[in-house]
């Protein structure tokens, strides 16, 4: 049970549209705010869009500390089912850990038409150093890695050490099943990223079994690219990708 109220701007979002649906997933310590622009852009094409809030996110980092990776999976599975009830064709996109969850879902749901992971995490050497540790209880924030001036991500000001153990478990089980992914994939990666090493996207490209796959470089954004200089470019690329598969 979450103790704190959901922050303004961190609420889940839903746009009802056509029989083509897109699940839009935010990242670790972040909120739906980072994905809302992309969600709105996809909805403007007439697609049905769901942006779920991951359990323990968008409230207070003490709530996040109590949440598990299984609950984050549950949060995105609920969003997936909401779309599944309304749509015939489903796509998934996600930023950072949202990208990890995109890959996780894709490995479990072969019916997904296409995926668009953005700076997805499957190997996080900086966080690996904290594996198995419980102290200190909280670390510095990892949100708001944004190149554009004056733009902030609605993310936690502290990172619970307990939550790092959870993302490491999620990353591990997701990486193991990358070869199960066979649907078309548009992999977007910032060439300069201070949170998730850009090589993650190269590894994803190499380890998924999709034949229709592409890595697209984001040249003017840091980690939170969906709020950065390349946000319009990302939206256009995702729209074109979906259009090419449902036309």
UniProtKB/TrEMBL annotation:
Keywords: Hydrolase. Gene3D superfamilies: alpha/beta hydrolase. The active site is at 96 (nucleophile), 193 (charge relay system), 223 (charge relay system). The record marks 142 as: Important for substrate specificity. Residues 21-228 form the Serine aminopeptidase S33 domain. GO terms for molecular function: carboxylic ester hydrolase activity. Substrate binds at residues 28, 97. InterPro entries: AB_hydrolase_fold (IPR029058), Esterase_lipase (IPR012354), Hydrolase_4 (IPR022742), MAG_DAG_Lipase (IPR051044). PANTHER family: PHOSPHOLIPASE-RELATED (PTHR11614). This is Alpha/beta fold hydrolase. It comes from Guptibacillus hwajinpoensis.
